[in-house]
């Protein structure tokens, strides 16, 4: 007489197995730690124990009740099934060690059962053991080749081992038994795309749509593949198919318009954008792109009208307005000589200033525009307003101080720099321009203080070199030669290609008749970096003059004069060369020219015997 337990299992294995129950149903039971009969039924259905049976059925399935050469008893089969259930339970509770022990015991008796092999394959996959997972999956597949879940588990194992070809083989084999299984097809298409087989992936996506019908998400997957294939025509064709499915898709129309623009088909792009604007007449991106078409067609009035409308729109955020204005400014920066584009950009700037009058960013953008277009006075107005509204804006302070400096408005540069130092203290850039402004006003003590401070603040090597070079010039003007030499040497160490520091250091050494060979090398290096510079040519000639090489002195000073940029000092040097060569008349000619150029050179009057 059979036990109740044996009869219970006999009942289970007689349930027809047409479909596999999703494993998430089982997890619902285990999460609640409830194990009713229906849960066990689900387990057995999931893991394919359709062949587990009474001893008579087992005898049919295993060769007259044998496991190899050994006959399996009813008690052994019952015990194996018990280990199987306990193994599955442990696996879903993530107790892998217990699961492996029980499933291995079950497999020793039920090794010809596909479900047992499959369960071991799944366990080893979870344990990151692709070798064993693949082995047991192959066993399951060989027993039940038509079961897609066994093949997908085998494919997972091959995927973990990096065997792409075998993964595809298993998916194709599964499709032989289930040719319309879109889940398998979708997995295959994604895998093909991941492996760079974009055309094959797209063919698989076509097969999915043949089964399920058109699908916008599938079209976008195909677009992604065509993008990687750089096939613009195919992308456009696919986008048109998407539009057939969803006529109201603004994003699709925007993508289509951008592709037409890239393909230099502005009219088609315009048509797509106008359709987008029919759906949303105030769509910012569509309006900006349409304005871009107007700009390319030099339809400045239309472009300005569209963009100004956006900037005036209360529903458009300030950030988006700034992006719109920045876009048109970037276009103008590429065509600074385009007068109609200048007017369109200026109109947009003025509109922004009107609607965002109290926003510092509006004035910062206006300042950038007017600086780039050469309208210095307007730029200064908006830089000042920017620093009022955004006193923490370091860039605005820097630009304001630098603009005053470049314009030769040194007093204003100094006052602005001092004000900036209160709001954005310890900025090397600001300290440098304040120090430079003092230097050019011949206030050398103040210049030295600000430049020394700038040299101790963080800055990039080329800029630090410029600071130190100017500090060297300042100390030289104060006749503090030890400090000057130290600053020049630090400047050149920070940037060996600082031609100004090389030239000035060489000149001051020659003036002092010190280290003349080093001075010649530095002057030569400065000329290599800037061979047409009049001052550098003069320095080279003057070093040769101090070395007593009058021929080379004459050569380089003459070249300096021939540039047309020679200063009074260069003209005086030419007179000194002729004087040294014993040609007083020629010397007097050049000294006279130097005095006419700069009447503050009082010492020349004595040479020229002028009272």
How much helicity do the residues have?
Answer: over 70%
Question: Separation of termini?
Answer: 146 Å
Strand content: under 5%
Strand order of the largest sheet: 1-2
Model regions low in confidence, pLDDT < 50 over at least 5 residues: 1-66
Rounded mean pLDDT score: 86
Radius of gyration from CA coordinates: 43 Å
Largest sheet descriptor: 2 strands, antiparallel
Structural class assignment: mainly alpha
Shape: elongated
Number of helices: 35
Number of distinct beta strands = 2
Give keywords:
35 helices; mainly alpha; 611 residues; single chain; disordered N terminus; Serine Threonine Protein Phosphatase 5, Tetratricopeptide repeat; two-stranded antiparallel sheet
Protein described:
Among the domains are: 1-112, no CATH class; 497-559, Serine Threonine Protein Phosphatase 5, Tetratricopeptide repeat (Alpha Horseshoe), CATH 1.25.40.10; 567-611, no CATH class. The protein has 35 helices and two strands. It is elongated and about 135 Å long. With 611 residues, the protein is mainly alpha-helical. The chain has a two-stranded antiparallel ribbon with strand order 1-2. The longest helix is centred in the first third of the chain and has 19 residues, at 74-92.
